[in-house]
Amino acid sequence: MAPPGTVARSRHPPATTAAPRERILDAAEELLRRHGPARATVVDVARALGMSHANVYRHFESKAALREAVAERWLKGISAPLDEMAARPGPAAERLVEWVLALAAAKRRKVRDDPEIFSAYHALAEEHRAVVDRHVRHLCEQVRRILEDGAAEGAFRLRDPEAAAQAVLEATLRFHHPAHVAAADDPAAVEAAARRVLALLVAGLAAGAL
Predict the structure, then answer these.
(1) Domain holding 40: CATH number?
(2) For residue 72, what are the contacts with CB-CB under 8 A and spacing of at least 6?
(3) What is the pTM of this model?
């Protein structure tokens, strides 16, 4: 309860300040958080917003489309900050290390700090593998951009930038895959291990391994 004289703040902005599509996604996310995927249906979302389910269908053609959009927005919350990191200037080797560590930290926050919503989103991701595949391709494109910048500055020797980007993600998987993140107990030890692996990767990229 808010203290006397103050106004309680809701998790999401007032309905009048958000576009209808975003309001619907906000409501679906809140239902996921409270009840899991079973309650994130068009009817449940419409009821939560006090609107007809026909109004929800104006923005999402089916329950599957709504749930896919919710999962996609959640994954964009991870990838969007990394876009800026991949695009900004600076030594590519340093940016690559920073990018991988930032991805690992973002996944750790999702998995460990909000386990209920992560569990719900994991279930949605299993339903909509295409969304996850697009997310992984987007991450790979970010890494490729950093590597190509490194090649342009002479830090990396690349024979196949796409294969090199995929190798970076595969080699660092244990630091950002949700299953491994959930099992890790010591973030400092994980970061130290990640930095050792990244040192090897940077050396290999400089030597033209891929």
Answers:
(1) 1.10.10.60
(2) 131, 134, 135
(3) 0.80
Cα(73)–Cα(70) distance, integer angstroms: 5
The 10 Å CB-count burial string (b at 16+, else e) for 159-174 is: eebeebbbbbbeebeb
Instruction: Residue 22: give the domain boundaries.
Output: 17-57
Three-state DSSP class for residue 114 = coil
Q: Count up the domains in the chain and report the number.
A: 2
Query: What distance lies between CA 57 and its chain's CA centroid?
Result: 26
- Which residues lie closer than 8 Å to 92 by C-beta, 6 or more apart? 146, 147, 149, 150, 153, 155, 156
Residues 138-177: pLDDT tens digits?
999 999 999 999 999 999 999 999 999 999 999 999 999 8
Cα 42 to Cα 68: distance, rounded to the nearest angstrom: 12
Tell me how long the chain is: 210
